[in-house]
Amino acid sequence: MITNKTEINVRYQETDMMGVVYHANYLVWFEIGRTSLIEDLGFYYHEIEKQGVVSPVVDASIQFKRPVRYGDEVFVKTWVKAYDGLRITYGYHVEHHNGELAVSGETKHVIVKKDTFRPVSIRKHFPDWHDAYLRAMEKSE
Amino acid sequence: MITNKTEINVRYQETDMMGVVYHANYLVWFEIGRTSLIEDLGFYYHEIEKQGVVSPVVDASIQFKRPVRYGDEVFVKTWVKAYDGLRITYGYHVEHHNGELAVSGETKHVIVKKDTFRPVSIRKHFPDWHDAYLRAMEKSE
Amino acid sequence: MITNKTEINVRYQETDMMGVVYHANYLVWFEIGRTSLIEDLGFYYHEIEKQGVVSPVVDASIQFKRPVRYGDEVFVKTWVKAYDGLRITYGYHVEHHNGELAVSGETKHVIVKKDTFRPVSIRKHFPDWHDAYLRAMEKSE
Amino acid sequence: MITNKTEINVRYQETDMMGVVYHANYLVWFEIGRTSLIEDLGFYYHEIEKQGVVSPVVDASIQFKRPVRYGDEVFVKTWVKAYDGLRITYGYHVEHHNGELAVSGETKHVIVKKDTFRPVSIRKHFPDWHDAYLRAMEKSE
Q1: How near does any CA of chain A get to the CA of D139, in Å?
Q2: How far is CA C120 from CA B15, C9, C44, C89, C130, in A?
Q3: Mean pLDDT of A18-34
């Protein structure tokens, strides 16, 4: 299974008056991990959109285990958790450098036409991504 | 059951290049609804923090049904979905003015001490909120 | 001179670990005031973009006088400060309810074609806005 | 003169429906450059705050020359533009990889006590930073 690991530099702007990273920002970090995983698979999300499709989130869940603070060194791990030819689910772990889990979560995406937001089959219309997603989930031996 | 309904004016800043509201911003709108519901219950969140506690999210889930665009008129409905004396779960619906559901979700919160992030029993230490949360969940006849 | 006055509800998300509103967010509040002033003049910004143009900021300046905190009651005042048929400059004041000035600033905008970002003369191509901008600057007697 | 150069990965979240980076986000990028320059000078901003002071922006100005889009490769250059023992002004350039200037700007900061927001003399109370700021402005021969 291919897992991407991306360093996150906590931005002052991402903190709130609680003194920790504001919870909605983890969805932005998930996006950073997802973009980087997609590059590992050989694609660029900004190139994908040039084909007239976008990939909105249809479902998201997040578990907040430990706060992350400004100055902390953290990274986000991202992998493909499920894929059925139409919908793809990414899994995420935000971890401190000592291995402690800060936040876990997942987001489910579809591909839709940019102008109509109608769903498009990845298997049928984007066979290269289809193969890459399957490959990304393969168990290593 | 007490349900708060708060108007949302979509900000240009909240859109992304997909032409719709960026998904993480719904968590911010949930926060707006939650704050307003808490006021309906007779409290101000900014007063609560003066007592040395904060109320972080421990769990969140969001279902994205229909995109919201700049210029759309939407509101967020918020209610208390579950409460056990320690953890409180809020439910949310973001709806268009024609009644169409755009986004649904829930967030679970605890109360912790601001300096240590150690959990505090609401039932025990904040009996007024405890009563308010119970009242908020009461079925109307 | 037409001045718009719009209430701002400070969002928890807008604060940072300094315990005050993060400075970049005032540009977002300026946008809220500007949008509302444009409505006072009889236009909707989301309708304007349907004509294939957008109105990017070309210059901005902000003076931070006093911090704004979560729970504070503030409003933003917006007016047309300068206009030459091509470029429009808005002025802004963020004020506390007691009249104390928190933040002042201005932003200068042009109108450009959405696809090429080439400037468009407001005077020539949008005579209705042109008249409205002139009217907005008129001294009351 | 010490100039810091930091790579920026444009986040999808930072774009708006105009298809470009939303203008307020450049202030966040300035913060990233500033933090990195401060590290080049031998300090960590998150350590500085542990001494009971914070460094709010008192003035900012930004000139938007060319839009930045998702997928663009850009960096921010940051340097100390002026310093008088009390107030420090940083200069910034956001540049495309081909050398084209996208955005320029400056921010002026003071050091204040975290609890009272009263100004503190850097020269007097933080002689190490004082020296570092002077050193950062020295002309190279």
Answers
A1: 30
A2: 24, 35, 18, 16, 12
A3: 97
